[in-house]
Structure formats: C-alpha cells, structure tokens
Amino acid sequence: MQKKIIFSVLFGLSFWFFYRGIPLDFFHEYSTTVVLIGGIITTFLFALALFNLVPVYTANKTIDKSHDNLGCVLIVFVVLFFFGFSIYLIYDEIERTSNEIEKNGIYTTGIIVDGSSYATRKADFSNVTIKFTTKDGKEQTTKQDISASEFSRFSQYQEIPIVYSSRYPSILEILRTDASIAKYSKTKIRELTLKDFIAILDMETPNEINLFLNGVNQKWEYDNGGGMNTTIYENKFKNIALKITNKKELIYILNGVNQQFFDREIKELGFTKTEISGGKGILYSNENYILNVRIEKIDTNDENDILGFKQVSIIDLLKVK
Predict the structure, then answer these.
(1) pTM for this one?
(2) Cis geometry, peptide bond prior to residue 219 (ω within 30 degrees of 0)
C-alpha cells in the first residue's frame, strides 16, 4: 500500500514539474531535451504507479486467460502514455510561447549573426542565431529554429523584424508577413502598387521617395552608389529593391518568379500589351508610360548554392511624357 502511494505521488509531482514547474524561457531554449527527459521520467513513474495499483498475477497462481493478457495491455498503455505526454508537452510549450508573445511582445529588429541547416526527408534541423537589443538596452543573442527552405532565404548580417517577450527576452518570433509587422509595430503596412511607382516618378528628392516607401512598408534605405544619375532603394526586411534614374525610369526587383504582377492595375490604368520581337518579358504601354515585366537570372556568388544563381522578377517603368 505504501509503494502505491509513493509512486502515485512521485508520478503526480513529475507530471506537474514538466508540465508547469520549468520556467518557460528554459523550456523554450532546451525544449527537445526537456521533452525527452520529461517523457522518460514521467512515463517510468507512471508505469511503477500503474503496476503497483493493478493486481499482479504470477505463474504460481491460477488465473484465467483475460488476466494472462493484462501485462501486455498495460505495457501498450505505458508506451502510448510516453508518446502522448511528450507530444502534449511540445504543443503546450508552443501555445504558451505564442501566448507569451501575444501578451508581452515588444517589436524590434535583429541581426542574423550565425546559422546552420541540416535537413533530410524526415527531419529538419535548421536554425539562425539572432542578436538584438532589448528595450532596456541589454544585448541579447538567441537561437531560433526555422525551416530549411526559410534558411535559404536568409543571409548573415541580414536585418530582420522580430518580436520578443518583455519577461523572457530569449523567447522571440521572426515576423514573416506584413500583417504581423503591422500588428506589433503598430503601423499600417501594405504592398507597393503600380500607382505607387507612378507617384514616385513624380517625386523630386531621394529623401522624399524614401519617406514615402517607409510609409508603405518597412524598412527602406537608399544609396546613391549607383552613380550621380541613379538612386537605389533597398528593403532590408522583404529582400526587394528599387532603382530610379533621373531619366524617370523605375526598376522594381523582387525575389521569385511572377509575371502576373499588377495585372488588375495594368488594365485599370489603360496599359495595352505591345508585341515585341526578340525582347525580354512582356511589354505594355499607355500614353504616358512604358512598362516591361520580365524574369532574369542573377548570380548568387554563394559557394553553398548548387545552382549558383537565383531568378528574380523585374518591373521596369519608364515615363515618356
């Protein structure tokens, strides 16, 4: 009787400790280790409590066939408990972390200082190390798990938008969409439109254009390194760029392949498709502008990139009147 009580109490304490007793930031940082250890220890104590609570039948006793299978049933039950409890710990940690960010999240930007990726068909061990400064001026470095496909889109020293917990700064989330950036930065964010490009071509100074771009989506910076007649605007968060010349030409560059950009606006603004021979992409025009939409290959200069290039979509808008 005493063993039954002891093992039952130990099982209950173990369940509570791994469920709620471990600080959330420690659990988040070492989640795989905690779940594995917690699953093994709690399941072991569960088995001891279970086998002491259920009557034990030995070969020296006359038992019916239903009791003969009881041990196998209990073993299956213990195995199911291990997987069930481990999966529950994982999903509970994810939910608690999400709630923590939701309640105590602070928006800022971080720098990717390191990362590694190893992926197979059944496993994905990819992560990046992010350095950022908290609201009270403390420097924080945190490792964040990501997918292998996402890893390929990041680069070392890239600035990215994040939200971290004010209570546990090691808990953070990379903001991947305009909607999430808008939510935590408390700003209105949208995608650039063809009408935006037309408005930009009528602006006088690079600073005016940069302020306009940052009013649409963050985080734009500009550089006159392209020459006296060219200004390059780069969005650090979205991996897109604009090049504007003093000849009233705007070139919009973004990753991925898509020749259907601005289809609705092209029709609304009276553009018509122009047949060209030997040219690149699709050419449109109206009485004031010429628009070219095309796909190009760009060398990545990355020795880890098997292809050695990436494809980008380019929208080239030229004002003719």
Answers:
(1) 0.66
(2) yes
**What CATH topology corresponds to 104-185?**
OB fold (Dihydrolipoamide Acetyltransferase, E2P) (2.40.50)
Percent of the chain with pLDDT over 70: 88
Q: 232, 240 in Cβ contact below 8 A?
A: no
Environment class of 45 (CB within 10 Å of its CB; exposed 0-12, middle 13-18, buried 19+) = buried
How are beta strands 105-119 and 124-133 bridged, if at all?
antiparallel
Residue extents of the structural domains in the chain: 2-103, 104-185, 194-319
Given a cut of 70, whether residue 304 has pLDDT beyond it is no
Contacts 24+ apart (CB under 8 A), 188-193: 189/216, 189/217, 189/218, 190/216, 190/217, 191/216, 191/217, 192/216, 192/217, 192/252, 193/262, 193/265
Which of 47-51, 255-259, 270-274 has the least mean pLDDT?
Answer: 255-259
For the chain, how long is the longest CA-to-CA vector?
103
User: 55 vs 149, which has greater pLDDT?
Assistant: 149
What are the pLDDT digits (tens) for 46-89? 999 888 877 655 444 555 555 557 777 788 889 999 999 999 99
Calpha distance 41→319 (Å, rounded) = 70
Flag the least confident range among 49-58, 163-172, 222-231: 49-58
